[in-house]
């Protein structure tokens, strides 16, 4: 049957100036390690995943507004304990007040489960279930193309677990953050950036002494799409300080950034990297110092057929203990745009964690056949 064009979800008018874009993803697969467990405890199962999405958008003059829902319903026929219903509802607003001043805001509500093996807490009879409210406001001064740009950002995230309270009650927290950025355009498509970020963590019980602040001082550059590349990179100093005198903090080098390279109009190589320090999710050291590098190659072999190969390497040092982890993930996917409203495909992912604590080692293979459907 001949192909009729690239997959392109269509926005449906539902009211004056309001459009709705509904899509549905369906995936059927198999994994040989549901809970990311060591080989002797690994459990095999089929995997059925549904990902419904709804996006409503509207605009008034230069401002744009959107409300969206995204779900992820996962079922393991051979491991019902790992079934999960994940939901997120988000509203965004992009208000352009004049040619120089704009305010972007976002508010989201999340109702999700932590997949087995993704935290260091003891496993319960069901997955750890949490709810969170996340809000952020970004004010930007500087017209597009102006020599300078100033941004101020405020945000907060309130997260609370609702089950397995014996092990999850210490993980409830409220984080608040403030960020300031200043950019100077030094070339037509290149801007030099200076940034300061301050994040405060307040745990509801704080019996592990995780209350503290995190400050980042960054300098870098971003460049808009040229004939071959676009991206940004920032490097600087991170200070993660705990209020508890018994918990050691981190002070040192941090970085974040990514580059997109297009050697051909139909071929893209993406590279990203970062280094950070985060709170542990169990009794595993004072903090986790992590760094990663990820790369992917996406190639459009025809207007209706593309492939993607990706590789991610992550290293984590659980400071205060002897534990060190290395995680490598290799992925491959192929997409076939069967119709404008149907995309079909297949994917394979292999991941491996090697740890100095043998109980955290794992290998996993995941195969999937999937479809994406739109109107």
Automatic annotation (TrEMBL):
Pfam families tied to this protein: BBP2_2 (PF10082)
Protein name: Capsular polysaccharide synthesis enzyme CpsB
The organism of origin for this protein: Piscinibacter sakaiensis (Ideonella sakaiensis)
């Amino acid at each position: 049957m001949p192909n009729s064009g690239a997959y392109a979800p269509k926005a449906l008018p539902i009211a004056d100036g309001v459009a709705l874009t509904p899509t549905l993803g369906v995936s059927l697969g198999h994994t040989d390690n549901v809970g990311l467990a060591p080989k002797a405890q690994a459990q095999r199962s089929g995997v059925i995943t549904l990902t419904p999405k709804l996006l409503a958008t509207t605009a008034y003059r230069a401002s744009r507004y959107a409300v969206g829902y995204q779900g992820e319903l996962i079922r393991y026929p051979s491991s019902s304990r790992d079934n999960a219903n994940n939901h997120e509802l988000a509203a965004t607003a992009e208000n352009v007040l004049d040619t120089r001043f704009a305010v972007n805001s976002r508010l989201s509500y999340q109702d999700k489960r932590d997949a087995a093996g993704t935290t260091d807490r003891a496993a319960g009879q069901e997955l750890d279930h949490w709810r969170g409210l996340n809000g952020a406001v970004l004010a930007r001064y500087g017209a597009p193309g102006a020599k300078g740009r100033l941004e101020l950002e405020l945000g907060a995230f309130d997260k609370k677990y609702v089950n397995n309270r014996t092990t999850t009650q210490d993980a409830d927290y409220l984080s608040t953050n403030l960020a300031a950025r200043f950019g100077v355009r030094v070339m037509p498509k290149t801007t030099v950036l200076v940034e300061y970020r301050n994040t405060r963590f307040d745990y509801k019980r704080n019996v592990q002494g995780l209350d503290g602040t995190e400050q980042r001082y960054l300098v870098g550059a971003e460049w808009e799409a040229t004939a071959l590349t676009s991206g940004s990179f920032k490097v600087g100093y991170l200070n993660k300080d705990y209020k508890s005198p018994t918990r050691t903090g981190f002070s040192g080098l941090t970085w974040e950034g990514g580059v997109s390279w297009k050697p051909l109009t139909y071929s893209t190589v993406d590279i990203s990297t970062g280094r950070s320090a985060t709170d542990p999710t169990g009794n595993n050291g004072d903090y986790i110092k992590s760094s990663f590098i990820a790369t992917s190659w996406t190639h459009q072999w025809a207007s209706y057929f593309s492939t993607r190969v990706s590789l991610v390497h992550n290293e984590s040092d659980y400071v205060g203990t002897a534990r060190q982890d290395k995680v490598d993930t290799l992925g491959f996917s192929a997409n076939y745009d069967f119709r404008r409203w149907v995309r079909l495909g297949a994917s394979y992912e292999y991941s491996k964690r090697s740890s100095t604590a043998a109980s955290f080692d794992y290998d996993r293979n995941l195969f999937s056949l999937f479809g994406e459907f739109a109107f």
